[in-house]
Structures are given as structure tokens and as C-alpha cells.
Amino acid sequence: MLEKDSIIELTRDELVGRLEAEARRRRGMSAQQLLLAYREGRLEDPGEVADLLALASLLSEDDPLLATA
Question: What is the per-residue pLDDT across 14-25, written as a single tens digit (0 to 9) for each?
Fold first, then answer.
């Protein structure tokens, strides 16, 4: 079944929680470490975590998680 026009709303805490949990599960690092490695070009096979990178892009540009990443 293909569902269209669905909207999922997440609070910042829910979004960061998902990022943290999945970054640790998949790569054994924090979300902040994952994002920093991506920005510095050190993230091996970023396509494997493209969904996490997309979630991180939903954070505001001045979000504390992104400020240090």
C-alpha cells in the first residue's frame, strides 16, 4: 500500500532522540559525531545513513546539535 499526503510531526527532542539512537546503533557514534564526520568528508558510505542526514536537515540552522557539528 502506498500512502500519499501523510504528515508526521516530530518535536525537536523526538528528532534528536531518533538521530542519537540510530547513529549509535548503526555507526557506534553520537549524532553530533556522525554529522561532524559527514561535514568533514570522513563519513564512510554516507548513503547508508542518508535518512539520518535528511532528518538532521530538518533542524533549524542554529540548532545546538548542528552548531558544533
Answer: 999 999 999 999
